[in-house]
Fold this protein.
Amino acid sequence: MIKNQWYAIMESKEVKSRPVGVTRLNEKLVLWRDSNGVLSCIFDQCCHRGASLSLGCIKGDEIECPFHGFTYDGLGKVKTIPANGRAAVVPDRFKVNAYSVKEAYGLIWLWYGETNEKPLPEIPFFEDLKEGFMYGTFAEVWNVHYTRAIENQLDVVHLPFVHDTTIGKGNRTIVHGPVVEWDGDLMTFYVDNSVDDGKTVPLKPNEIKDYKQLFSLQYHVPNLWQNRISSKVRVFAAFAPIDETHTKIYLRFYQKFIPLPMVGPLIVRISNIFNRIILHQDRRVVLTQLPRKSELVMGENLIQGDLPIIEFRKKRAALKGERPIE
């Protein structure tokens, strides 16, 4: 995982009045809301006898261990040990790791890295999705590392083969470019595929004129993606890392061409049925890829059309300090 980043890990609506235990970024976590609805997140293992805190309950603003009643605050500190009496002082060693979490854009974000008591950076999100859109979400777990799931959405070569009955119709197998641009941690890639007439040679990225008029998609470090279908229609995904071999994908359909409160949500639900079909066409193939985690160099024979994937790997390696971006 890339350190010192905000990761979208869940939808806000998944944490309500009871503790919720999840695994994210290889960590067992328990999340809950206090009496004011404020979110807390700590390690899901009691420091006393190792029981899962997520099986416990909320007492006021604290979470109570189901085994022996130890209560924890949002900083991971044990506040009471019932067997010792409420008047007893709790030693400092009775604590577990706490995690910085925030809510924004209907998602829960976890800061993965050092805090050092410095102000943390802003939550990363696509600027054009922050307001004006209506959306709906569905989610599912894939048995792959989150890098494989992300790379599938950066792959502009597979469409006519994996999605030949849906978004890949037309047999446009020749991939021109694609053109890839970075703006900080935001990658935009411009796509132009065409039918192979037996004569056409794919254009190199620097040979494509007016590329900003082309269809485009975006990836934002560390785990966000969007398909910019039009100014009023987008498909968004957050790839929440569970562990080294599992990822939970939160896929959203955004629309603002029908803002009516009754009709708009119906359009979103219907569109997500189609998006699920497309995602499952991807899943059928991606789950077979080996190794399940991608790296900058791993013995593949990549082609020009793989440029967004190459750029993703280079950026990730650079942020992990493995290799500078060339």
Summary: Residues 263-286 form the longest helix (24 residues). Helices lie at 146-154, 159-162, 263-286, 307-319. The radius of gyration is 23 Å.
